[in-house]
Amino acid sequence: MNPFVEKPIKTAEDFYGWNNMALKPYNKFDVDPYTRVRIILANGAEYEAVWFSHQFHRHERDNDLRRDLATLRRKEQQQQKRIASLKPIGEGILEHTIGYEQLAVDLTAIFAQRESDRYVKQAMDFALLEDFDHLYRYADLLEMDKGIIAEKLVGGYTELMPGRPTISEHRFPTDDVKRFTNYKKASSLTKLDINILTAAEQQTMNYYMNQAAFYQNKLGRQLYTEIGMIEEQHVTLYGGLKDTTSTWLEDLLMHEYTECYLYYSLWQDETDRYVKKVWEEHFNDELQHLHVAAELLQKHENKVWQQVIPNGDFPELLAFRSNIDYIRKVLKETVNYTARGEDYSEVGDLPAEAKFFDYQREVNGKDSDVASHNIIRKYIADNGKDYRFQTAEHPVEELRERNRDNTTVGR
User: Fold this and answer.
1) Residue 61: C-alpha distances to residues 162, 216, 289, 293, 335 (Å)
2) What is the Cα–Cα distance from 135 to 129, expressed in whole angstroms?
3) Which of 27, 276, 409, 411 lies 20 to 30 Å from 4 when distance is taken between CA atoms?
4) CA atoms of 361 and 149, how far apart (whole Å)
């Protein structure tokens, strides 16, 4: 599939009416977990499209181009509202959060396994273990506060057990700034992976920024705040991998190509017939957007799309699947890694004067000040051991104990 040679069936003036923006929500009791994560992922992609378009609009002097952007952006906003309406009213903040973290875990694991750029793969493996730990912390809070077993929400596709402990993830800001990727040399798959992960992590960051104050108790509010700070680090990490030399119009083309690829993948992967139809409709929307972006690039910069995306054919499509074995391997091999400037190393190899240690002391203070630790500590105090779903013994010996939360791994 090469979207550049496909003929769009819609025009920029084709908008949705109100009746087509309020879609039928999924049933939270019988939805496939990967349908839920596909919806969350598509919502994040649309948020990124809107956010990028507004930034472009604010940096552009040509009002004709700004009007073209406004027309594209209005449709992106409509698409986002349609996707958001698929979430049922009765699904709570914390239940939805499990979907966010399952998405982060499995999406990152899938991309890491297919990534050919070793530096980009290293970033994915690194952040993977942190989102994996977030999923575990939220799962314990969900059972503790709501009596809901997260294993049912993740469908057994994703394990629920400690990753790199969240208390260990807090790093000095400069350690999350990485080397950018040259898109002129990178494969289409690498560019797509970076764009999609940036959008997904950005959405999670914003969700936690907004939801922290709405949680029902102090400990839950503190957990959302703490993990929200890690999501800020992840957005810096992934966003920093994007090519900083691209022009705004080149970046617009890449955004639209990414959305075409994503919706086409979701359309092919979806098991819910109703939601599958939504992905098909949105792919056709994005096909038109992509062609407009190519025309704008030609008009304003005298460039053809092949100068940005040499091979327009979609690479391997995104298909959600369980990644238990791969995550266990990464855990066993890299759980004690931390960021070290633009690279990574075992925390034990850091010099004593590394800013990581100063930041840990300043932000974390005592372990008893840290919400991600206190969630597990309270759950153990109430139940004798933590809540987990694992298919075998934990691959990291220090994280096998279930009646004490480990706060030293990775620190």
Assistant:
1) 50, 46, 21, 17, 48
2) 10
3) 276
4) 34
CA distances from 297 to 13, 128, 254, 302, 352 (A): 20, 35, 11, 6, 50
> What 3-state DSSP class applies to 315?
coil
List, for residues 219-264, the tens digit of each pLDDT value. Answer: 999 999 999 999 999 999 999 999 999 999 999 999 999 999 999 9
Contact 228, 137 (CB under 8 A): no
- Whether 368 has a pLDDT exceeding 90, the answer reads yes
Average pLDDT over residues 393-402: 97
Specify the 3-state DSSP secondary structure of 76.
helix
Contact criterion met (CB below 8 Å) for 91 and 31: no
Which of these, 121, 135, 303, 325, lies nearest to 231 by C-alpha position?
Answer: 135
Contact between 146 and 123 (Cβ < 8 Å): no
CA–CA separation, 339 and 178 (whole Å):
10
Q: What is the pTM of this model?
A: 0.95
Structure tokens that stand for 59 in this block: 């940096």
Question: Mean pLDDT throughout 100-123?
Answer: 97
Query: What are the structure tokens assigned to 53, written together?
Result: 């378009």
Domain spans in the chain, listed from the N-terminal domain onward: 27-399
Provide the token pair at 292: 């407009």
DSSP state of 351: -
Q: Cα(280)–Cα(90) distance, rounded to whole angstroms?
A: 27
- Give the residue among 407, 392, 324, 271 at the shortest CA–CA distance from 105: 324
Other C-beta atoms lying within 10 Å of the C-beta of residue 336: 19
> What's the rounded Cα separation, in Å, for the pair 33 and 129?
20
What CA dihedral angle connects 10, 15, 19 and 25, to 10 degrees? 70
Distance CA 396, CA 198 (A): 29
Q: Measured between alpha carbons, how far is 387 from 384 in angstroms, rounded to an integer?
A: 10
Instruction: Decide the pairing of beta strands 337-340 and 343-346.
Output: antiparallel
